[in-house]
Amino acid sequence: MNAAVRAVVRMGIYVGAKVYFIHEGYQGMVDGGDNIKEATWESVSSMLQVGGTVIGSARCKEFRTHEGRLKAAHNLVQRNITNLCVIGGDGSLTGANLFREEWSGLLDELLQQGLIDEEAAQRNSALHIVGMVGSIDNDFCGTDMTIGTDSALHRIIEVVDAIMTTAQSHQRTFVLEVMGRHCGYLALVSALACGADWVFIPEMPPEDGWEDSMCQKLSENRADKKRLNIIIVAEGAIDSHNKAITPDYIKDLVVRCLGFDTRVTILGHVQRGGTPSAFDRILASRMGVEAVLALLEASANTPACVVSLVGNQAVRLPLMECVQMTQEVQKAMDEKKFDEAVRLRGRSFENNLSTYRLLSYRKADSELPNSSFNVAVMNVGAPAAGMNAAVRSAVRVGITEGHKMFAVNDGFEGFYKGQIKEIKWGDVGGWTGQGGSLLGTKRTLPGKHLDKIAEQMRIHNINALLVIGGFEAYVGLLELSSARDKYNEFCVPMVMVPATVSNNIPGSDLSIGSDTALNAITDTCDRIKQSASGTKRRVFIIETMGGYCGYLATVGGLAAGADTVYIYEEPFDIRDLQANVEHLTQKMKTSIQRGLVLRNENCNENFTTDFIYQLYTEEGRGVFDCRKNILGHMQQGGAPSPFDRNFGTKVAAKAMQWITRTLKDSYKGGKNSSPKFDEDETACLLGMRRRAMVFQPVSQLRDETDFVHRIPKEQWWLKLRPLMKILAKYKTSYDVSDSGQLEHAEVSDEFTV
């Protein structure tokens, strides 16, 4: 929430508005007085990394009464406030909408009571409202992610990772209760992200007799040498008769039926606290700026709207449509129409649910379709967090669809050396939370070893190939598909899933691993800023990874509140450096006496990190001193973030389903018809484009690629640069063309994470 408050204040000041804080939510609006204070640029400094909300929030009974709203209106009119930005859940937003509908009536009453004059009533005749949804449950329809959800997932996954180590040592079963009274999003996604054995959510009660099936599954897992079982329960979990399913009930059941040592952990308010994740800070900053633009454009007859992100795009949706849809979910659940409730939650929720079912229920061999296809999975390029989650997902989906799955170790190098072996369901257990690449990965390209790779594909009779990796994976796939006319073995379906911290793959807005890297950058910058604010007048220059791609530096800079970010895609010269030093000199005269400068490792061959450090040290002499820090490979390591685990899992599952479809469609005439997969469409990349996941032939992406610098020619995140500069108090022009237009709330039909 604080990132959103900061963005609204700074963008408001930037466009020349007077911005006020209303402390303690609606209570502060009703009480007035010191609760409503003008905000300054500096008053929102250092709050990006703080959890909760700095301006306070409170449930307010008085605002629910007409008298309370009358007082609130009076307090706003006294200060000529006619634009409200409300950050909260559906209750807060419904309240705001009611307030807006009553506004002219409230002004009339204030006039009659002589509390305001005619002129004040004219001046404040219309009230505009924009909402941002802040709720850790992610229970608001029409929006993909609400502010706070990703951070809550971080808290849950930290706990699950810690519990897994103790549970594995002791062969224990753990039952974890997570928040979500009416919405199972947190439970579902954390179950997906840690590979839980069973999950209970309010939208999808288990069928009668679930006790036996659950116990059977737990004992099968133990028999498979799995030393721990994890069961995740949403606090609102119910059975099909609307009876609550509690962690203690589950514990007693497991102890009674199986005699397993079982422990219960209730996470409670831990999930609301802690430092916000990089994703939440970026989401909230983008929404805050969008909210101010929406208020500027509002007229007396535009409906109150909420700003949100769908996929990668800012959108505006009519507030009441979203609220009504959200209420319909609850109604469907009350009427036991659970399939309808899941549908109303949106495509993202449905996708999570179906992926979870695919990956967690192992069918008996007799139930599996027999496809007689062999599919190989490999990692190529540098390691990225989330690769293992993607491999696990691909292997299990492949087995469920009847294929024989093969793992290739150490990328294309392992491929030509014959490091290929069959991989089974149990081999990938517990992989989701592991960082790096368990299969092993290398940057070697296949070009020089095509003969040997073709030979290995012949020996193992490989019918399809799934490559999970970075830029080398993309180039490798191009090389293999270009050699199809020489080698029949390469005429098989091939698909690539982007996984690289640099996020520099053409054809995809996001890649597996970059979210984890952003969190590593953000965490380090938070610590560095803290040390700087203690010493005063200090500027830190931090070098990030990314090759020539400025994604990590730019988006990391937005999440960490950087003053300047140097990247290759936006050329800069000595005059820019001088202006940046001057900007920091001015900043040191205020109460915020620290600076943060990010530099992408390859942004300029002559303006190195050392050069910039020395320049700033010299030019800032007597005003500030400098320190430098090169983050290096800590950006590649670490446990994958919930986002990367989930993204990796879903994208790889989708890629595997594409392989099955492509194989099945072409072998309809029986196995002997042996089709040749030599069309461009059969060698493709699965990427996220704006709002949808799309399969694109790699040959078509060639023209979109700058091969010398290993980056796409057009990159969506460059439009976040002006936003970052505005929030750092630079005078710059902001392109409004990309801001959201008012759309209608509908059950989103795109694949989103």
From TrEMBL:
Pathway: Carbohydrate degradation; glycolysis; D-glyceraldehyde 3-phosphate and glycerone phosphate from D-glucose: step 3/4. Beta-D-fructose 2,6-bisphosphate binds at residues 443, 500-504, 538, 545-547, 601, 627, 633-636, 710. ATP binds at R59, C60, G89, D90, G91, S92. Mg(2+) binds at D90. It is found in: Cytoplasm. Its main location: cytoplasm. One of its GO terms (biological process) is fructose 6-phosphate metabolic process. GO terms for cellular component: 6-phosphofructokinase complex; membrane. Transmembrane segments: none annotated. Signal peptide: none annotated. It comes from the Eukaryota. Residues 1-294, 374-659 form the Phosphofructokinase domain. Substrate binds at S135, I136, D137, R172, M179, G180, R181, E235, R263, H269, V270, Q271, R272. It catalyses: beta-D-fructose 6-phosphate + ATP = beta-D-fructose 1,6-bisphosphate + ADP + H(+). Residues 374-753 are annotated as: C-terminal regulatory PFK domain 2. SUPFAM superfamilies: Phosphofructokinase. Allosterically activated by ADP, AMP, or fructose 2,6-bisphosphate, and allosterically inhibited by ATP or citrate. Its EC number is 2.7.1.11. Homo- and heterotetramers. Belongs to the phosphofructokinase type A (PFKA) family. ATP-dependent PFK group I subfamily. Eukaryotic two domain clade 'E' sub-subfamily. Belongs to the phosphofructokinase type A (PFKA) family. ATP-dependent PFK group I subfamily. Eukaryotic two domain clade "E" sub-subfamily. Catalyzes the phosphorylation of D-fructose 6-phosphate to fructose 1,6-bisphosphate by ATP, the first committing step of glycolysis. This is ATP-dependent 6-phosphofructokinase.
